[in-house]
């Protein structure tokens, strides 16, 4: 059973990953308006001047230009908004696609007990994909900027956004995708397996 699951997951990763890479620029471009809104509302300290998809060295990347939206005080120093004071932050589009591919591959690699099981997984995957796709990239982009601020002005200051970005960039996105896939498979199997299987389990129980 385990070998079958691993084989199915490898096939799904190859197929979904290839499709995602081919359409990465188009997928990323379609998500730019939403990611820009999330970035703007995740931390109102900065204003989003621009948010776009660019090609850098043959790789699609998200790049945003940010400026101060309101006065910022760090270690007793206050910095006022200035139209000339802007910073760039970027991250590869793969940071959006890889967790989604892992989540989808794991969720459908485990054999379902019936067609309803797969439908349940598909329904549960929608909010999970929205969660992963909405906050990962904005958090990384804002974390990059806050890292620049803290390293330049207050190296010892703790920033939740920097910590969150570091977590995601060091395997956190994949870990979250795996955890969500396990939850989705468990829940769908629990509520969508045939009643006969439940009755049989009950009869076998001591």
Report on this structure.
The protein has 206 residues and is α+β, with helices and mostly antiparallel strands. The chain has one domain. Helices cover 67% and strands 17% of the residues. A hairpin with a 2-residue loop joins strand 3 and strand 4 (77-79). Helix 3 (94-109) runs antiparallel to helix 4. The two termini are 26 Å apart. Residues 196-205 have low confidence and may be disordered.
Compact summary:
The protein has 206 residues and is α+β, with helices and mostly antiparallel strands. The protein is built from six helices and five strands. It is 67% helix and 17% strand.
How are the SSEs placed, and which strands pair?
Layout: H1 2-22, H2 24-42, E1 46-56, E2 59-68, E3 72-74, E4 77-79, E5 86-92, H3 94-109, H4 115-153, H5 160-192, H6 195-204
Antiparallel strand pairs: 1-2, 2-5, 3-4
Helix pairs in contact: 1-3, 2-4, 3-4, 3-5, 4-5
Comma- or semicolon-separated keywords:
206 residues, alpha+beta, disordered C terminus
By DSSP, the count of extended strands is 5
Count of helical segments?
A: 6
Listing every helix as H and every strand as E from the N terminus to the C terminus, the arrangement reads HHEEEEEHHHH
User: Number of folding domains?
Assistant: 1
């Amino acid at each position: 059973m385990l070998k079958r699951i691993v084989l199915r997951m490898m096939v799904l990763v190859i197929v979904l990953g290839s499709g995602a890479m081919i359409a990465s620029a188009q997928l990323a471009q379609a998500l730019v308006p939403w990611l820009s809104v999330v970035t703007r509302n995740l931390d109102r300290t900065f204003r989003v001047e621009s948010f776009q998809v660019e090609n850098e060295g043959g790789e699609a990347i998200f790049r945003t230009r940010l400026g101060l939206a309101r006065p910022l005080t760090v270690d007793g120093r206050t910095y006022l908004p200035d139209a000339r004071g802007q910073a760039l932050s970027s991250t590869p589009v793969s940071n959006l696609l890889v967790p989604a591919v892992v989540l989808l591959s794991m969720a459908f690699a485990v054999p379902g007990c019936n067609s309803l099981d797969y439908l349940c997984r598909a329904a549960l995957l929608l909010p999970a994909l929205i969660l992963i796709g909405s906050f990962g990239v904005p958090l990384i982009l804002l974390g990059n900027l806050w890292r620049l601020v803290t390293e330049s002005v207050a190296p010892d200051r703790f920033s939740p956004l920097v910590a969150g970005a570091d977590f995601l960039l060091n395997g956190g996105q994949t870990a979250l995708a795996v955890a969500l896939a396990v939850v989705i498979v468990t829940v769908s199997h629990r509520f969508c397996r045939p009643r006969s299987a439940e009755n049989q389990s009950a009869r076998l129980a001591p």
